[in-house]
Amino acid sequence: xxxxxxxxxxxxxxxxxxxxxxxxxxxxxxxxxxxxxxxxxxxxxxxxxxxxxxxxxxxxxxxxxxxxxxxxxxxxxxxxxxxxxxxxxxxxxxxxxxxxxxxxxxxxxxxxxxxxxxxxxxxxxxxxxxxxxxxxxxxxxxxxxxxxxxxxxxxxxxxxxxxxxxxxxxxxxxxxxxxxxxxxxxxxxxxxxxxxxxxxxxxxxxxxxxxxxxxxxxxxxxxxxxxxxxxxxxxxxxxxxxxxxxxxxxxxxxxxxxxxxxxxxxxxxxxxxxxxxxxxxxxxxxxxxxxxxxxxxxxxxxxxxxxxxxxxxxxxxxxxxxxxxxxxxxxxxxxxxxxxxxxxxxxxxxxxxxxxxxxxxxxxxxxxxxxxxxxxxxxxxxxxxxxxxxxxxxxxxxxxxxxxxxxxxxxxxxxxxxxxxxxxxxxxxxxxxxxxxxxxxxxxxxxxxxxxxxxxxxxxxxxxxxxxxxxxxxxxxxxxxxxxxxxxxxxxxxxxxxxxxxxxxxxxxxxxxxxxxxxxxxxxxxxxxxxxxxxxxxxxxxxxxxxxxxxxxxxxxxxxxxxxxxxxxxxxxxxxxxxxxxxxxxxxxxxxxxxxxxxxxxxxxxxxxxxxxxxxxxxxxxxxxxxxxxxxxxxxxxxxxxxxxxxxxxxxxxxxxxxxxxxxxxxxxxxxxxxxxxxxxxxxxxxxxxxxxxxxxxxxxxxxxxxxxxxxxxxxxxxxxxxxxxxxxxxxxxxxxxxxxxxxxxxxxxxxx
Length: 753
Fold this sequence. Notes:
Elements: E1 2-4, E2 9-12, E3 16-19, H1 29-32, H2 37-45, E4 53-56, E5 60-63, H3 68-77, E6 87-90, H4 103-118, E7 121-123, H5 130-137, E8 144-147, E9 160-163, H6 166-173, E10 178-181, E11 185-191, H7 200-211, E12 221-225, H8 234-241, E13 251-254, H9 258-266, E14 281-284, E15 286-291, E16 298-300, E17 308-310, H10 311-316, H11 318-333, E18 345-346, E19 349-350, E20 354-357, H12 359-362, H13 365-375, E21 386-389, H14 394-403, H15 405-412, E22 415-416, H16 422-425, E23 436-440, E24 460-464, H17 466-474, H18 498-503, E25 505-506, E26 535-544, E27 549-550, H19 551-554, H20 567-571, H21 582-597, H22 606-612, E28 626-634, E29 637-639, H23 645-652, E30 655-660, H24 666-674, E31 678-681, E32 693-696, H25 699-704, E33 709-715, E34 721-727, H26 733-741, H27 744-752
Parallel strand pairs: 5-6, 5-8, 6-7, 8-9, 11-12, 11-15, 12-13, 20-21, 20-23, 21-22, 23-24, 26-28, 27-29, 28-30, 30-31
Antiparallel strand pairs: 1-15, 2-3, 2-14, 4-10, 7-25, 16-17, 16-24, 18-19, 26-32, 32-33, 33-34
Domain Aconitase/3-isopropylmalate dehydratase large subunit alpha/beta/alpha: 41-470
Domain Aconitase A/isopropylmalate dehydratase small subunit swivel: 638-683
GO molecular function, one term: aconitate hydratase activity
């Protein structure tokens, strides 16, 4: 079904794969690297003149309503006077306006006022989810788009799109660049054709299962090539492409064809199409070979999209597989939140409580139409199982109505909702305690369905394609594979732009300079943050030894999203579902630093400084010369969302560093840097614990010198001193200056003086 090469490959004529070790002598790797689609797009957007060190400028930006307020506030504080490129502000996350009084609606009004003042595009709540709007109205062949949402992926339309923390969008708004080393590019070579009943989530989950754990495409670009591309419609490809985020790749792009042109033409934008193919000989750093005809209906069990099985294999080994999930549930929820999938087994079948088809992955036209086809003249039943469907935009919703699909779904008992991302991040359709929800959405991390293990409420999500969800619904909630039924092609899609024409504010190139930003009482400015001193003392306030720590664990989604415009208010939730003592410990450290700045050295710090003064060269070091901050250790932090608040919340609480074995994603490491924290790494098991301190001398000068190794000393709670070497992966010159300044805001303010 899927095989991975164990090294680089040459792709010849888009079809034939040759291991580089067996390639003809006349194949020139240096030249063939330029033959990828990714190289051509990056080259066209690079401003450095040097492809090894890219300085990229994007064609458009996009954000939603739990990120755009902070981005605009940061850019404004940094000197922004207008949006220098098209910037789309969608409202698909805090759409319901149901938590915190006027908070969410206030953010929406702020977004509309910013679109007027600075010249942006404002998409009101319920009109479209962020990525569907960008597919329909903005993406095009050869373009680059940057979004403050991790699932910013429009590769199926020939667009290299990336999801990053807000700091990277701020740089674009200030006409700066996105700076990275030239990334690796991995071919995803597709052959065959998906069987009837196989949907995009089946293909995507199979690929995620093959490449996530081994890091095969981590921080690389996935380039989809091969004859199998044309076996799928562009709408189908969009559903596969958006899930590449869950592989931890940097971005993705597909070869384009006549179907890509038809998709763009149907949306009134045929001029955005051009043929994209690899050169006759192209070199890739690896190759994922996918036989689409061998893909079977898949399921990603809790608690990660890579926890993948075929539905057939799950049903054949139900007890053994579910037992492993129950063990993980016990680790996550503890004894206070009992959860068991084994309790849902009935006569050898798994019963689920809920089905959801929604968002940028599940809510597109062909998925919802397929679900309606399966449920036509069927019955979801009047028991505990429920089904909710969220079309991804009003134009998609309108066409489904015209085709009769909505009526078929409603008659079967499904509930139809408007475009909303809530089920993807824990703010909509939370199932019952001990419930299992099967979802065609993007993620199934712990608490992504909205449960709260800390107060004894726990449910879980398994990811499946809309077709198998519909088959399960038709079977009353007993897990069922889509291929148990016959399927027909979706009816042709006809795009109607009228909802956008009547509701979307389009202000590109017509900003209103004297317009006022509309602030609600929850929209707060960023607190002041100090510049980095030369010597720092890090107090260890959390030590997380899980194999992977997601951004949802660093800062929970769901109920916290209403506070994203209030830095200090949101910070109260930091690590609340993983380490509830973190906030209190961090505040205590911040109080020590605030007192030190005023010249008042707390009594509890004196023993630490006496130990530091015993080190060679530091006998005369005074406490006033050492900045104090908190630090978390995690084995592999930052898997998942681009949400910058996972880092900014640490920073406003006094965080100075992260120490990690490795960083799960580039975007999380970028967030740490842009918020002025040091992205340290440590080989092996940490020899420190919560309550210990780490003294890092000369860190500012070391950053200026481009150091990769930072000698430091652990000071344990019993006073013992022990050396430790921290490392740091390469930083750009700008990144070093941002950390030294204390954060991106400080760096930009200094530049504008």
